[in-house]
Amino acid sequence: MSVEDSKKGAVATVKKEKKAINPRELTIDPATEMMIERSRELEVETIFDRAQTMKACNIGIQGTCCKNCAQGPCRLPLPKSGIEGEDTRKGLCGATPETIASRNFARMVAGGAAAHSDHGRGVAETFLAAARKETEDYRIKDTKKLLEIAPDYGVETTVQGEDGEVLDRDIDEIAVELGERALAQWGQQEGEVCTVKRAPSPRYELWKKLGVVPRGIDREIVEIMHRTHMGVDQDYENIVEQCTRAALADGWGGSMIATDLQDVLFGCPYPLKSSANLGVLKADHVNIIIHGHEPLLSEMIVQASELPEMIDLAKEKGAKGIQLGGICCTANEILMRHGVPLAGNYLQQELAIITGAVDAMVVDVQCIMENIANVAKCFHTKVITTNPRAKIASGDVMHIEFDEHTAFEDAKRIVRTAIENFPNREKEIMIPDKSSDLVAGFSYEAINYHLGGTFRGSYTPLNDNIINGRIRGVAGVVGCNNARTTHNDGHITVVKELIKHDVIVLTTGCNAIACAKAGLLTPESAKVFCGSGLAEVCEAVGIPPVLHMGSCVDNSRILMAATEVVKAGGLGNDISELPAAGSAPEWMSEKAISIGHYFVASGVYTVFGVHLPVNGAPVFQDYLYDKLEGIYGGMWDMEPDPVEHARKMIAHIDKKRKALGIDKARERVLMDMAARQKLEAA
Ligand code: NFS
Ligand code: SF4
Prior knowledge:
Rossmann fold; single chain; 6-stranded parallel beta sheet; about 675 residues; binds FE(4)-NI(1)-S(5) cluster; binds iron/sulfur cluster
């Protein structure tokens, strides 16, 4: 096939299909809207077109299609008239809708937990290589955090001297032992994943009582795959119990260890300024998009792109410099630690290439659409895969394997490839002139510091403001984009509704990027979008009402922040007692299901948007949405309408305030505030 022929394969057929939807209905982000229009002008097909031409399967969407053996797929849709009397639907083997939907759900948890945890494993391996000094390229950067976390892994930070005196232990020795202990959490067969103990003790005791403390990270994921094999676990409650073990092994294990070790290797994030959206690309620069998830790669690319030899080479090729931009969680990682601007979230990956200004899109793992290879065929952009786990079967995609032992050399090769591609730009460049300022970098340590003042960091001031009612509650709003729903609309509507009602928002993942683009990550936005109580707190402390805590593995930071709030006192003894709620308005990835489930099992009411593939099994659905509250104090919910979605979260927050006896305080504060405003106005 000639290049021209293969390019034709990438060209859209949208024009021939029914009338294309107005881009304004597909996204609320002006840059995205412009780029969808551009894609149509150039007849380059994107996910926005495919979402129109291919509809989701009506049975799969209910969660009741089983293909776990070759006698199926067995499809058990809900009858149109609903279920009257006994539900007699069965697969060939007799599997009920509950069994099928819960198995499918469990496999999503397994997929998500595996993705996060395999990322964590990669970090642990690199960490160990750095600690053992097997690589020159990575070094332990944050020794303070190293010493802080070591005890959680059972690693001593002091030794006894000959005369019995307590001496500091050698930092390299601590690092090696920590790396070994961390890595061992994956293959461990019995006992407990050590970081799970960080949860508030009543929560940990509850998990112990229920027998759901994960034994080893890999073990719990494998056990889901076993139990959901044909003819094994046929009790949806028992299947959900295993989901809990695997999800906790993710949130309080694999993801948490990933965050810990990334912070020690690359530095714990602290607030910094940057900007977001496709407008961060520069027509006269070599533009490199880094897309995917693991900071191991992107950290090296940031360093390589700053080398004078690289900048000189870029100039030699006619560019003014090198501009990096991130997409998906890699974006969040390098933003948090280096202030590298965010180019966009998940649904913008194809559009970035369509600007014609991207000289290389470098990807590692997760959330990378295969179609970027097709889109890139229509432009000069080089797509470069870097991870042995994630290749794209297209002759036009380069694979430059990234090895932690030769990381910096690999990164230089990648950056050089991008620079050398700069003169090959062929199409007219169109970069939407849209970007927003932001402040990011709120690790839970940074929140501690910011709220608690310089002398002694603590969450007490946050708790005080929750107790006195200025802040109504805390929400974790996270997760993906989903082409089945208007891009960023769910994210922004939910978040705005929450902050308008004085709920402070902690964000990660593609929600964080959506908020950044909408200007919600600036302290100034508080005045515009928040209720008076939250606005007052944000102004006094100088923080945005939406705190960017990082990538999706950094949802572990949200768990730690919740734990700190419990510890600071006055708001009950467990996460389930906090006036808090979780949300993923536009989820699509299996990782989101794992995150949702560890939020729920940690005691958080968690609402998902779009849909959840469980409604074909009403009994199972009711178990998730209702019965789990009696077990964990947290439960699932689904609400596609974003305003209603936020209202449900607020109602839950108010329920918790009432249970804590602090509902009256809030009424007083708001009255004060109203009275004060009246005075000011008079
Ligand atoms: Ni999270 Fe990050 Fe975005 Fe969803 Fe994908 S990037 S790990 S999965 S799409 S939020
Ligand atoms: Fe059908 Fe049972 Fe096989 Fe699933 S496991 S495909 S329900 S026969």
